[in-house]
């Protein structure tokens, strides 16, 4: 990101957002002149109260720009693979195993022994992280995005029990019992935290949608009782909301909680509730909860479910995150971001919005924007299922969700702004019968076959059906194993 691209981006922003981005632009200018006034540089890096307050009230798109620029300040720009850049000779290049992504990630995060081997992912990722899969030729941004998707999918595997979801799979929270099935679970959480920070640095997404409550802990925010709503909405409704409205009479509550909320590993076992802020530590676990201490009981219960039962997992993830994000920036992020913000920054927008996608798309040639094939493409996307739209997005960009702030924030190979772009197949292929769409995922480009309007009596409707059929074939075969173009 450069000062000129930020200037262009501010044109459509509200005045408040423009003021903040102008501050970021000044930081960019200072970066280019390392001999700038030390006092002013420190003020901009560490920030003042007014700027922090202004940033906190902006939308997630402006916050994303701020986080991205602060990380680039600390770690330097993302550099292209294979291009020597002074000062970034030691950037991270990893060869990863597609068959065992989590184990492989942990191996790379292990400090290297004197004999060498492991530890390629232990250094600061200055200049970026470049990925190649073992025995595969592909490289570039799309390969890195695919790697993050594969690692995230492995982390969500129910056989690992690293995470659990109490809202139908929308968000994930560490599983209190993760160590029962996966003894090395803390190494996994550390590695995943590090990977989440690297995704932020690259301006990309890691499809691991964490609960806002968990992200609040990563930022260092104090717990609130309502944090339980994002971790277990049913328990929040049936316990917190009910007790606050009706009291504890008839509930037979005691100062304890299930050791294992799932009841799988320790059925029937109970543990006492503890809270640092209340007198719960003085309560016997068999003592009944009264109306007078109902609020203290709720705080103690929420503290255990949100923090206490997953404290080790949270600290391991935070340690990995902090190995990339330096403490001064972590403090600034705490002041600016909410848990909801960080969750979206890591995982991206929760759904694919077709209008946003179309609004922030570009075309390799101006004439294509009003062409028949492009009209059929957007109509075909509307007819696809949500899963299929995500697969088209992954086919064309390597991402499984839009970036935080929407499609206007797509980035390319070097982390700079590169919009989703529609083009045509090469001349020798565009008119072939049954020609399939082709993607250049490192550059967010999707090339379409040329459909002739004269061949479709019902116009865009018929063309969309045919292009949708070809898209389905392409995405079923081509969302893994990216290669260079």
TrEMBL record:
Q: What is its EC number?
A: 2.3.2.26
Whether Membrane counts among this entry's keywords is no
Q: Which domain of life is it from?
A: Eukaryota
Q: Name one Pfam family in it.
A: HECT
- The positions flagged as active site in the entry are 442
Is this entry keyworded Transferase? yes
The protein's GO terms of the molecular function aspect are: ubiquitin protein ligase activity
Under what name is this protein listed?
HECT-type E3 ubiquitin transferase
- What GO cellular-component annotations does this UniProt entry give? cytoplasm
- TM ranges: none
In the record, biological process GO terms are:
protein polyubiquitination; ubiquitin-dependent protein catabolic process
Q: Which residues form the HECT domain?
A: 129-455
Substrates-to-products reaction catalysed? S-ubiquitinyl-[E2 ubiquitin-conjugating enzyme]-L-cysteine + [acceptor protein]-L-lysine = [E2 ubiquitin-conjugating enzyme]-L-cysteine + N(6)-ubiquitinyl-[acceptor protein]-L-lysine
Q: Which SMART domains match?
A: HECTc
Organism classification, top ranks? Eukaryota, Viridiplantae, Chlorophyta, Mamiellophyceae, Mamiellales
- Key words, A-Z: Transferase, Ubl conjugation pathway
Pathway(s): Protein modification; protein ubiquitination
What InterPro entries does the annotation carry?
Answer: E3_ubiq-protein_ligase, HECT_dom, Hect_E3_ubiquitin_ligase
- Please name the top-level EC class of this enzyme: transferase
């Amino acid at each position: 990101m450069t000062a000129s691209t930020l200037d262009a981006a501010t044109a459509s922003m509200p005045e408040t957002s423009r003021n903040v981005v102008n501050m970021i632009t000044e930081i960019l200018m200072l970066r280019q002149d390392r001999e700038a006034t030390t006092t002013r540089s420190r003020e901009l890096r560490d920030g003042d109260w007014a700027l922090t307050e202004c940033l906190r009230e902006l939308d997630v798109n402006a916050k994303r720009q701020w986080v991205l620029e602060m990380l680039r300040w600390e770690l330097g720009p993302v550099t292209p693979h294979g291009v020597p850049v002074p000062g970034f000779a030691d950037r991270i290049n990893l060869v990863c195993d597609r068959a065992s992504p989590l184990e492989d990630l942990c191996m790379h995060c292990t400090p290297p022994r004197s004999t060498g081997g492991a530890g390629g992912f232990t250094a600061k990722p200055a200049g970026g992280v470049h990925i190649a899969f073992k025995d595969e030729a592909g490289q570039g941004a799309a390969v890195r995005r695919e790697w993050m998707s594969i690692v995230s999918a492995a982390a969500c595997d129910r056989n690992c029990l690293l995470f659990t979801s109490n809202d139908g799979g929308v968000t994930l929270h560490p599983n209190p019992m993760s160590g029962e099935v996966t003894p090395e679970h803390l190494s996994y959480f550390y590695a995943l935290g590090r990977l989440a920070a690297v995704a932020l640095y690259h301006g990309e997404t890691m499809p691991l949608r964490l609960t806002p409550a968990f992200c609040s802990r990563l930022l260092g925010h104090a717990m609130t009782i309502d944090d339980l709503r994002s971790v277990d909405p049913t328990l929040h409704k049936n316990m917190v909301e009910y007790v606050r409205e009706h009291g504890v009479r008839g509930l037979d509550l005691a100062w304890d909680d299930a050791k294992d909320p799932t009841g799988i590993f320790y059925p029937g076992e109970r543990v006492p509730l503890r809270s640092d802020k209340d007198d719960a530590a003085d309560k016997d676990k068999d003592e009944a909860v009264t109306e007078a201490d109902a609020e203290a009981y709720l705080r103690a219960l929420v503290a255990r479910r949100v923090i206490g039962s997953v404290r080790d997992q949270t600290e391991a993830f935070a340690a990995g995150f902090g190995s990339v994000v330096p403490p001064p920036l972590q403090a600034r992020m705490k002041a600016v971001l909410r848990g909801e913000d960080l969750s979206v920054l890591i995982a991206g927008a929760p759904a694919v919005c077709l209008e946003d996608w179309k609004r922030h798309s570009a075309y390799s040639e101006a004439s294509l924007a009003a062409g028949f094939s492009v009209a059929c493409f957007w109509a075909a996307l509307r007819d696809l299922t949500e899963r299929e739209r995500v697969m088209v997005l992954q086919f064309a960009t390597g991402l499984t969700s839009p970036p935080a702030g929407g499609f206007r924030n797509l980035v390319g190979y070097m982390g700079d702004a590169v919009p989703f772009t529609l083009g045509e197949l090469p001349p020798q292929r565009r008119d072939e019968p049954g020609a399939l769409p082709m993607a250049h995922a490192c550059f967010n480009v999707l090339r379409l076959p040329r459909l002739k309007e004269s061949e479709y009596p019902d116009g865009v409707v018929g063309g969309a059906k045919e292009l949708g059929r070809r898209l389905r074939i392409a995405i079923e075969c081509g969302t893994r194993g990216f290669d260079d173009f």
